[in-house]
Structures
1.
Amino acid sequence: MSINVTLDVMLAKRKTSVTQLSEQVGITMSNISILKNGKAKAIKLETLNRICETLNCQPGDLLEYIPDKE
């Protein structure tokens, strides 16, 4: 099982940069980049909530479930 973070897609759709999102959400650019590049092992619901508020999207717009291949 794998969860793919599609934050980069949503940033492009909203024409928003990592810098702008970082300032609006209140977390570091480094942490936004970790999420954007799929390197995050976890995300706080509070952070996910703030990102969704800022980008006017749903959590499902940012997270994609990819099942294991059998």
Note: The first strand starts at residue 2 and ends at 5.
2.
Amino acid sequence: MNTVIANGKPVEASVPCTLEEFLVAQGFIPRSVVVEHNGEAVPPSEFRSRVLNAGDRIEIVRVVAGG
């Protein structure tokens, strides 16, 4: 286990792993979030191929629909 900085807080994670694996492990539904990885917006089509490593910084925002 190593640490990833998620939304400004250290989170223990089994890295390297894909962004999708990390999101699922943290209880997120990948299709319902927007993610920035090391300052770069990540399209959902890249969640399965984008690799997280120790020390990476990610920002996760839940998408909420409503009217």
Note: The radius of gyration is 11 Å.
3.
Amino acid sequence: MKYYIIAGEASGDLHASNLMAGLKKLDGQADFRCWGGDLMEGQGAKLVRHYRDLAFMGFAEVLANIRAIFSNLRFCKKDILGYRPDVVILVDYPGFNLRMAKFAHQQGLKVFYYISPQVWAWKKNRVKKIKKYVDRMFVILPFEKGFYKKYGIDADFVGHPLLDALKAQQKKQGNPEIFRKTNNLGQRPVIALLPGSRKQEIGKMLQVMVSIVPGYPQFQFVVAGAPSIPKSFYKTIIGDVDVKLVFDGTHGLLVIAHAALVTSGTATLETALMNVPEVVCYKGSNFSYQIAKRVVKVKYISLVNLIMDRKIVEELIQDEMNTTRLKQEFDKILDGKNRQKIFKDYKDLKEKLGGSGASEIAAALMVGYL
């Protein structure tokens, strides 16, 4: 069968490439054409557009690149028509992909959506488009199946592909002691600082995270640096505080971490799945926060708490994200009794996520429906 797959970000490239591996096992005639990245191309796909040319973040950047965005949409429609796939598989990336879902549906093509947009948090009007234009949803968070059912949409819960990605990383990782030596980390217990991947959030988060460091000389604090951010940017914030910096090593850092301070996002789930007690942090501009508070309708900001539907990790949001409160919550995750409870909750989290094999489960369901 012919598969046209659209992923617009690095994470989408990773998860789509694993899905493709699963499809190839079941469909010996599988032919792939895609928008994505090197990992999807590595699975044998004809790469039409790379995600690095598609990622426009923020209102101002979208406006500045509006002509390029519309040009990509026009090209994608033409390319789909020329390829005539058996199915169009959309991977997250909703701004672009929901437009392509409408187009593909209008052309009489089968449309599958793998990794749902976060419509349960905001822009719930997108559910109407999904119901109208998508033939089948394959969701990775357990509560999403129930969410879609309320709107009369059948969705398959396949488990979270991050479990598979972490398992693959562990095979590559090797000896944790080698990671310590390579990055000049001593034997003191490590506290991982994950301040995010964008300059604005890093500036706000890391400044507060670093402020508690002098009070804990028994630990070594290590920042997981984002590859796209220069070392000098981090050094300006860290100053003369005793904090180390590691690039391209988030997984290795979490393997050896005793605890972590983590900016809200997928990293909160990755940290929990790697059994590291954490405090979740979020601090934005007051203007952005006030808007978000009005449009985002969720009880929690971390995926860990959202999945469990109860608070198992502490969330310090906006004004609560300050030195005093961070120190209080950090002390709690160092306490032995609290840590045992966290580890039990993490075990329940892994069970709720359905175990490993999400990509192969999704692939089997897709081939079955086709």
Note: The chain is about 50% helix and 20% strand.
4.
Amino acid sequence: MPTSIRIPTPLRKLTGEREVIEAEGATVGAVLDAANQAYPGLKNRICDDSGNIRRFVNVYLNDEDIRYLDNLGTAVKDGDEVSIIPAVAGG
């Protein structure tokens, strides 16, 4: 069973306006790589040139920030959900 990926509104133009897409992989990084194969440019908006999650983007696996887990190496299992959430600034 593939992993569900929740896409924020600003990135939906890359996914044909889909709110949720699916991809397979053993880690969050592999899932994002697979999603990028299906939707080119998606990972470039999430990761910087070094391959790290951009500082203004938060990625969650089942409601847990992957920065506090194993980052892109965080293992995923069937039925997991990855959420991509852009940081919100303001004051």
Note: Residues 3-86 form a domain with the Ubiquitin-like (UB roll) fold (CATH 3.10.20.30).
